[in-house]
Amino acid sequence: MPAFIQISDTHIVEKGRLVCGASDTNAALRNAVASINWRRPSLGKIDCAIVTGDLTDNGTAEEYAHFSEIMAELNLPWIAIPGNHDNREEMRTAFGSQDWMPDAGPIQWLRDFGPFAVLGLDTLLAEAHHGELSESGFTFIDTMLTDLAGKPLIVATHHPWLHCGIPEMDADNLRNGAIMMELLEQYPGDVRMMSGHVHRAVTGKVGNILCQIAPSTGHSVHRDQRENAKHALTLEAGAVTLYMWQEGSQSGLISDILPLTTFAEPVPFQ
Ligand SMILES: [Fe+2]
Ligand SMILES: [Fe+2]
């Protein structure tokens, strides 16, 4: 059955650097790649990895080269959309030879997995932390929703529309997400959103749409609901998310968060 692994918010920096002087995102992605490769034999067929933005921390050519170098070890092809920490043109230059990369405009694509499809959208707005879907993004999604004619669909964006309950992140979400949700609400098939940006595994419904936000391979955004809490990163264990289609009486998509830790061989139940 078709399946993919969502990797998000890898925030790669130049070799030897740490994000905020504390988070070794380069080591975290190397660990993620090793962990996915190690788990692969037990996961069945995986078609690809989908990277939902913030591939790099500063969007430089050096950082994209370093991202490529680490991802070359992954035993899976991968496709990506940009996040607010990316630079669209540097990303296009770095990955221009990939079949999913458009020659110009937003980095958006459709990947058909057979029983379902993933629509990757570009919500990067230069110089901003929050996201917006461009006019051509709306045209693209409109066309694709018509063409897909009700096929089960995941809409992938870096910026989520779902509020996660961390005020600083909710202020920097997909600002025109409400218009997109209206379009999705009219879709005749099963549709869900899959995003990144928050560096936490958060799930909720907006209207009828299931919205899933992915953990990062590296640091998390700290959840501290106390008043006057400082907006901060934490070095919680990173994770990736497995999405797989299952057939049978509950035919459809399921997801499973895979922590990027190592553990002993499974112990058979007695
Ligand atoms: Fe991020
Ligand atoms: Fe982000």
TrEMBL record:
Membrane-traversing stretches: none
Domain Calcineurin-like phosphoesterase: 4-200
Claim: Iron is one of the keywords in the record: yes
GO MF annotation terms: cyclic-nucleotide phosphodiesterase activity; metal ion binding
Keyword entries, A-Z: Hydrolase, Iron, Metal-binding
Keyword Hydrolase: yes
InterPro entries: Calcineurin-like_PHP (IPR004843), CNP_phosphodiesterase-III (IPR050884), GpdQ/CpdA-like (IPR026575), GpdQ_beta-strand (IPR042281), GpdQ_catalytic (IPR042283), Metallo-depent_PP-like (IPR029052)
Family of this protein: Belongs to the cyclic nucleotide phosphodiesterase class-III family.
Protein name listed in UniProt: Phosphohydrolase
Organism: Falsihalocynthiibacter arcticus
